[in-house]
Amino acid sequence: MESIADSQRAPFTFIWTIEHFSPQTCLSLFSPSFIVESMENTRWYINLNEVAYRFGCSLIREGNKDTGPKSIEIDFEIAVLDDNGSVLISEKGHNVFKKELYRTYLFELDDPLWEKWRKVSSRDILTIRCRMWKTHGQKRVRSTSADMGFACSKLRVEQNSFIWSIRDFSSLLVQQTKILSWQSPTNEEPKITLDLHIYDYKNKEEVNIFPTLEKSRDCNYAISFSISVLDAHGREVDCLIDRQRMEYRKETYLCSSIITKSKLIANKDLYLKNDVLLLRCTFKIGKGFILNPVEYSYSTSSGKANEPSISYGMRKTFKDFRDKLFSSAIDLIESKSETSKEEEKDLSTFSCASHSLKKALKGLFEDGVLSDVILRTGDELFSIHRNIVSARSPLFRGMFDKETKENEIIDVPDLDADTLRNLLLFFYTETVKDLQWKNASKLFKAAHLYRIGDLEDVCSYFLRDNLSESNVKDALSMGEKFNDDNLKLAAMQFSSGESK
């Protein structure tokens, strides 16, 4: 293993780090260009590109901005480094470079290099090193300096995960299909459709999943996906598809048989509680750079720094540069929203959220997109987002902290399906619709149980406004049981004839 210190022997060394890198979500990536003064002020850059499930790493001489000679002869070496600067793999070459001429080396996508890289790269950082020597007649020209250049690029990678609930799974017949359409909440990527098929192959009913990527002309991303089966407790027990790459050039992706129907049914207590198959689907989407590249270079002979786009001061080692760079990097995410002050006054519908936000969150709840935990009551399953529900109820937050370290399904036996649905709808939209005395009473009790003061007030107001001879005793009982003095007083006044 060669140390980064050996790079000092080369007249010029360029080190490029790419943060959030993944072989499955790699786009065509270009490093910042760099000028090599000791090689007649030639200008260069590196291109990393996926080619037929291999990675091509190219050293390219820039054209228009290069003020150097028409051609230059050099030796060069391209290497992939680990976090400590040791070489994982390297390729050497010799070439006469004219402007816009390049030389490419290919690294196999399934090469053990990537598995090794994953183990040693703690932050998903790919480090590429390029060393260059000027030559004449294939003999290296001696140089009195050892210049270096550094650059860092950060990739924008969006990861989305959701749970696909397939009900009545055991009743699915051969050639039957279940379809799920998914699109990122940003709506920037084309829609992905998952088709689950049952096929008869050699007297075995096999389950296959076919992802389809909607065609789009403006494609500048790469997608990888994984699909796993969850057990009755929400734990991943079988990984069906692991980090398969989706290329935007294709439309449909054929997956081999992933599991047999007979295996799922034979282990129904593990896989099919209430005859529901749960699949966790995870998509990682690479979208190119999110930060302007940071360049820094210096000369060990003169100490004179070249003109970087952003300078972090004199850093004499690769480790110094990396530590300084990543301790200084700050991600800024700005979110702006406008809310209206309009409030609905209909007694059967209470709302205090803006219309646009309510609509978006309601869609998130109903579609279950990007959900990360399931609530179960009886035979009903609700795919929810723990961050939203935790923000609304401290009791649920405590349940998530305690029970979902390993489990992704939580049973809620004290609420029926309709009450839990109304409770969750309020969490997402601060709205409850179609209130009647019976469901309002159940919701009032649930709000008290899960410490949701706003919902208690809404239900209490509705109950007080809809008192009748048939329900006043229940109202008085609830007021006493749940310490609601307003409901208790209203019921007492109604019974004595004091209310209007």
From TrEMBL:
A Pfam family the protein falls into: BTB
Gene3D superfamilies assigned to the protein according to its UniProt record, in alphabetical order: Apoptosis, Tumor Necrosis Factor Receptor Associated Protein 2, Chain A, Potassium Channel Kv1.1, Chain A
Protein name stated in the entry: BTB domain-containing protein
Entry superkingdom: Eukaryota
Domain annotation BTB: ranges: 371-436
InterPro entries referenced in this protein's UniProt entry, alphabetically: BTB/POZ_dom, SKP1/BTB/POZ_sf, TRAF-like
